[in-house]
């Protein structure tokens, strides 16, 4: 559990103050989190992965850092518990587009159970601030379709986790969906081996892919290497950011990542790697069109 000061500092990062637990405040925290605390692979890409234990994740976020699902959902879950919410952690698996659904524990799922004022009984909600471009608000674990800005989601029973549930992503999103195991796990230490692989293995996709994402009430932002994508109700706009100064300015202004924890030399190395991979990618794209 977090101390009163840690709760206050965490909520300050979100631009919020402490309120009595409610569905409304849960939604407000969720929206603030996915707007202000971006999902990213910067630290892994730079060779400086952050541990996923709760204490490290909370301090990292309070000190203007961020991360991916293990950091974001892990820290947010203990904030919610400390505020009095009934929180459960779950093993989950993200299904990349073109792949089969999976339950591999490479995603940390979170659910919150609380009284629903509309149906007048307890309801369980998917609370996930660690999926980058989805979702903006908590989603009830009730079979159906849900609309959030330009995004369309579906909740249905999972086919790979007995008695579990599946969150189907928007049709044009970068991955197909997420399956959740209903069994409750003790803490984020259950995911330590998965984090070790994703953050340190040469076979991990994140080691050579700098990806940053966040949400807002009208859509989402994504920076994939040097390609900046903005999604709204009108569609997706893409642009290449190959100027070093503009790239770091974008990372700071749009995604809230000033990278103050990195020295000038380290940031130079990040940029060299980003632009090198981007140029290699462009050459490959040109070859495909020849």
Automatic annotation (TrEMBL):
Keywords for the protein's UniProt record, in alphabetical order: Transferase
Keyword Transmembrane helix recorded: no
Gene3D superfamilies recorded: Arylamine N-acetyltransferase, Cysteine proteinases
InterPro entries according to UniProt: Arylamine_N-AcTrfase, Papain-like_cys_pep_sf
Domain of life: Bacteria
UniProt key word Transport: no
MF-aspect GO terms: acetyltransferase activity
Similarity annotation: Belongs to the arylamine N-acetyltransferase family.
Source organism (scientific name): Fontibacillus solani
Protein name (record): Arylamine N-acetyltransferase
């Amino acid at each position: 559990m977090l101390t009163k000061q840690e709760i206050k500092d965490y909520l300050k990062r979100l631009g919020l103050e402490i309120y009595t637990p409610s569905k409304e405040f849960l939604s407000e925290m969720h929206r603030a989190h996915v707007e202000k605390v971006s999902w990213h692979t910067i630290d892994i890409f730079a060779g400086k992965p952050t541990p996923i234990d709760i204490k490290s994740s909370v301090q990292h976020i309070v000190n203007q850092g961020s991360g991916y699902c293990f950091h974001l959902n892990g820290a947010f879950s203990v904030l919610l518990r400390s505020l009095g919410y009934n929180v459960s952690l779950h093993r989950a698996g993200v299904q990349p587009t073109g792949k089969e659904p999976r339950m591999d524990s490479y995603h940390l799922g979170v659910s919150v159970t609380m009284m629903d004022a509309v149906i007048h009984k307890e309801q369980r909600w998917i609370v996930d601030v660690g999926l980058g471009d989805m979702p903006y608000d908590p989603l009830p674990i009730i079979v159906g379709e849900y609309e959030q800005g330009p995004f369309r989601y579906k909740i249905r029973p999972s086919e790979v986790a007995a008695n579990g549930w599946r969150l189907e992503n928007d049709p044009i999103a970068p991955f197909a969906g997420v399956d959740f195991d209903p069994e409750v796990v003790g803490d984020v230490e259950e995911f330590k081996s998965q984090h070790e692989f994703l953050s340190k293995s040469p076979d991990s996709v994140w080691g050579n892919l700098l990806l940053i994402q966040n949400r807002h009430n009208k859509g989402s932002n994504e920076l994939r290497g040097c390609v900046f994508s903005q999604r709204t109700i009108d569609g997706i706009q893409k642009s290449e950011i190959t100027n070093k100064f503009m790239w770091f300015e974008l990372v700071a202004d749009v995604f809230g990542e000033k990278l103050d924890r990195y020295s000038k030399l380290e940031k130079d190395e990040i940029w060299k790697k980003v632009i090198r991979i981007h140029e290699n990618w462009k050459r490959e794209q040109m070859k495909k069109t020849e």
